[in-house]
Amino acid sequence: MTKDEVAKLIELVASRLAEKSRSTWLPTPSRPEPPGDPTPGMLPAWSGAAQTLPDVAPVRRPVGVSRHRPEYPALVAAARQAAAGRGPAPLPAGSKAGAERASTQRTRREVRIGVSNRHLHVSPRDFETLFGKGKAPMVHRPISQPGQYAAAEVVALSGPKGKLDGVRIVGPARGTTQLEISPADAHLLGVTAPVRQSGKLEHSGGGITLEGPAGKVELVSGVIVAQRHLHVAPADGKTLGVADGDRVAVECGPAGRRVTLHDVLVRLGPDHATELHLDLDEANAAQVATGDAAVIVAASRGAPAGKRRPLLTERDVAQVAARGDTLSAAGPYLMTPAARDRARALGIWRDGT
Ligand SMILES: [Zn+2]
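Above are the sequence and the zinc ion SMILES. Below is the predicted complex in structure-token form.
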């Protein structure tokens, strides 16, 4: 190729490119003119700091399923305002200053916290033993859950190591007496209280004496640390993206004490009002109080009711054997093949297969 030919080729390519640019290429970008003085306290519209992330990169996600912290766009906007020197740095919703701003950051997956101090649910029979024949709990004040109330009556608890006075009864009376205490209370009283869902009292703790003005009740079982749980009113299930039996993780607390609590059991039904129930130890650890907000950050689906069967491993089998119990194929659990072999080896497999 001669020099002339190369020059011609370059000219040809250049002219073709120019032709293309007139038809399909994008026009030269132009920057919008900054308007006059921006309104005091407001960022000019052309400033990147005035834009929220979804303006720039809109995302479509199903309602109630958020991959990020729900207050993220509000947080980004606040952080940008702060970076531009137009406001304080955003604070987590749990702190005092953050709480004021919480109204603007309130989102669909935020729930109110209710902190439960130690309390007693009592059977009608035990109530009569404690407070006298023919007596029933009197309403002191209603509590958040529909139909339930803090009763006027209190009892004293005594355990092997200590005593606690003024423990409130929560009414109305129910089938079985159930004492809900915090791990710190259990330590003070000198008893072991397992973490249990309210009402599920198998293998619950005992060793505590209840004392009322008319008599005493010895508790051999029914002493629990309540499993942290989220009551959900049926109307809120969809917005929160949860169903009965789900386990969720929630985030709460001010900067420096912020925590994520896992294994929060969702209890959804007509006699529930939406509220996250934590015991006093959990609340103190996260430095939150009744009325503060928590945010649901993750959820795992519970199995359909009636189909929930735990999986037993070799280690579980060893524990069952240590308790002197037996296992069988008909039991309400699933077993790994190794666990089944172990059960046979330990002689606690009842089917003989
Ligand atoms: Zn509760």
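The first helix runs from residue 3 to 23.
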